[in-house]
Write a structure and sequence with these properties.
- The protein is built from 4 helices and 5 strands.
- The chain is of the alpha+beta class.
- A hairpin with a 3-residue loop joins strand 1 and strand 2.
- It binds adenosine monophosphate and zinc ion.
- Zinc ion binds next to helix 2.
């Protein structure tokens, strides 16, 4: 096992070396409660195999993580916990707010008055000219072709 995996708290949770409150698992995916929940029922869905970021994650497993996330979102709404809506959140990279470098999808129950706010920068709300959007779309399309 690589040093990166030996030091990883989520790999330790998968191995049962650290405690976790599990809500679901299969061969590839594990879901457990976040230790510092934003709201009660806040769940993390992770691949059992270590991947530090999306670039290193098998896309098929990424699909499985999203499927499990959808199931948990639906279950949360029926669970009796306060859940009037759900946010799915994934931080990929330090600058995006990733603190644990083992891919994880947050499933966050939402309810009126829960206090969670996502604040954007000062340019949010402005509509860039269409040619700027076209240029950005073209850059992304070209990158997709070269992947
Ligand atoms: P992120 O900031 O997106 O990387 O999220 C990391 C999340 O992992 C945070 O919400 C932490 O509260 C959560 N976390 C860290 N350690 C543990 C742990 N031992 N068990 C459960 N959740 C954890
Ligand atoms: Zn790991």
């Amino acid at each position: 096992m690589k040093q990166e995996e030996q030091d990883c708290i989520f790999c330790k949770i998968v191995a049962g070396e650290l405690p976790s409150s599990r809500v679901f698992e299969d061969n590839q995916v594990l879901a457990f409660l976040d230790i510092r929940p934003i709201t009660p029922g806040h769940t993390l869905v992770i691949p059992k195999q270590h991947a530090p970021n999306l670039a290193k994650l098998d896309p098929g497993i990424g699909g499985e993580i999203f499927k499990v996330g959808m199931k948990i979102a639906s279950a949360l709404r029926r669970s009796g916990l306060r859940c009037e809506g759900v946010n799915l959140w994934l931080a990929d990279g330090k600058v995006a707010g990733q603190d644990v470098f083992h891919v994880h999808l947050h499933i966050i129950p939402r309810f009126s008055g829960d206090g969670l706010r996502i604040r954007a920068g000062p340019d949010y709300g402005k509509m860039p000219p269409r040619d700027e959007l076209e240029k950005q779309a073209d850059s992304i399309t070209q990158a997709l072709k070269s992947s």
